[in-house]
Structures are given as structure tokens and as C-alpha cells.
Amino acid sequence: MQAIKSDLQKMIKTKLPGVGLCLAAAIPAWLLGQLFPIVGGPVFAILLGMCAAPFLKKTTVFKAGVTFTSKKILQYAVILLGFGMNLSVILETGAQSLPIILATVTTSLVIAFLLHKVLHIPGKISTLVGVGSSICGGSAIAATAPVIDADDEEVAQSISVIFFFNILAAVLFPLLGTALGFSTASGDAFGVFAGTAVNDTSSVTAAAATWDSMFGLGSATLDKAVTVKLTRTLAIIPITLALAFHRTRKAEAGSEKIKLRKIFPFFILYFILAAVITTAALNMGVPAAFFTPFKTLSKFFIVMAMCAIGLHTDLVKLIKTGGKPLLLGFCCWAGITGVSLLMQRVMGIW
To answer: What is the pTM of this model?
Structure first.
């Protein structure tokens, strides 16, 4: 008992300074994200971390806590994300968009794989950008990074690429929808488009809300887009599990000893459990507002983790190596947009 107490005290002593630093940086990043939702707290957090990194490079007292935040707290954020999932509603209303989601996710992953081979882009960055573009931006990157053992600079690079195209989508997609002749009497077509073709939740909501305000649709487009986006989020489950199995097989082929249970994304199982608990509770009459604090805490944990990732990132190196990942992100983004529009046309949604 005394030994356990001693280990706990030691862990708190070594990790608390770094966790506290990330917490302190996350608060202003979170507030800035609330003021400028099109940018979002995670991006402000990475930028704050990058700006502070040069001043803390020789300071070791924060290292253990910052690493803990960028790895473990990031996983806790994904688990809590499950409390935003009502699986019964998603399955009921997401059926229309499921073929489009499957097509866009496949397109992005294939493009990422091909450009990884052709342009010799590092495999982990290609995976993170492909998954982030196709599923749900920062949340998908957060779930995938620990499974493929991506380092903080690779995560920061990927988040930066996703952020850039998020901003473009939020600004340009309402204009594109108007030019393409999407129905202005209903939010269905644009809601499906935003939910399947925009990377991150913040930009999905920004684009959908803009469409609602442009044509006086209340929250019809936003509701549709968010439901489609949550359906996309479920793709985290098979993707991370497949990556874990692939990493194990690749290690075995190279005679490297990696046991699946050591890299298996158990936090994804907890994510599923959280979604099941939420669904069961809502079906039993528990109000949805009960789960709001869990979802808010999930978002805040992601902001904290992005602060930690920023603190581990070399900004100069990030800029110097950013060309190919940016091209990869553009190709994934363009491919997803084109396939989403093509599938909607084929299915008669617009």
C-alpha cells in the first residue's frame, strides 16, 4: 500500500507541472476558439504551444506532463467523444448519407496512399492527413496518432493541413452550393454536402449555419450536416482497428516483436462503450443535456492535447517540410469534394 502511494506521489510530482502548463495554455486557446469558431480552439492551442516551445526547450520539469497530455489525455478526449453519439438516431437518419461517406472515405485513403508512394511523403503523415480529411479532422487524427505511434510533429503537421482546408471549405462551400444550384428551400442537399466533404466539426457547423442564415432555414441544414458528420465519425472505429492489425503484421514481417495487445486501441472500445451507454440512456428517457458536459470536456481535452503537441513541435521545421503534406491535403480535399458531389447527383439528392 505504501509503495502504491509512493508511486502515485511520484507520478503526480513528475507530471503535474507539464499538465498544469498545458491546462494554463488551453484556457485562453479555448476562449479564443469560442470567439472564432471557424478557427477553433485546437488550432489556437497548437499555435500557442509552438510559440512557447523555444522558451521551454531546455526546461525538463515540464517534459513528462506534456508527453502525458499529448498521449493519454488525447485518448481520454476520444473516449469522451463517444458520449456525443446517439447511435439509434445516427443509424436512422444517416442511412441516406452512408454510401457517400463510404465513397469519400475510400477516396481520401486511396489518394493518401498513392501520393505517399509517388511523392515519398512520410507514411504516418500520409495516414493522418488521409484519415483526418476523410473522417472528422482533428478527432480522427487524435484517435489514429497513438495507434500508428505518430510523433507530435507529425500530428501538428497533419492538424495544420486539415485546418487550412477547413477554413477554405467553411468560406467557399456556401458559395459553391449556390453556384451548383442546391435547393434553397431545404437544407438536405447542402447539409449532406457539408457533412461529407468538410473535414472538421467546427467548419461543418460554420458552413451549414451560413447556409441556414443565407436562406432563412432556421437550423435545418445544421441539424442535417451534424448528423451526417457524426455518422462519419463512426468510421474511426474500423480505421483504427485496421491500422492496429496492419502495424502488427508489418512488424512481424520485419522480424520486429510487437504484440497486438500492446498497441491495440483499447480507448476505441471505451469510445464505443460510451456511445452505447449514451444511446441506451437516451432511449430510457435521460435528457440529451445530461451528456453535454462530457462532450464539452472532450473538446477541452483535445485543446489541452494540442497545446502539448505544439510544445513538442519545431515551428521552423514544420514550415520547411510543409509543402508535400499541403499538396496531399489539397488532393484529398478535392477528391472528397468531387466524389461527394458526384454521389449526390447519382443518388438524386440535388
So the answer is: 0.79
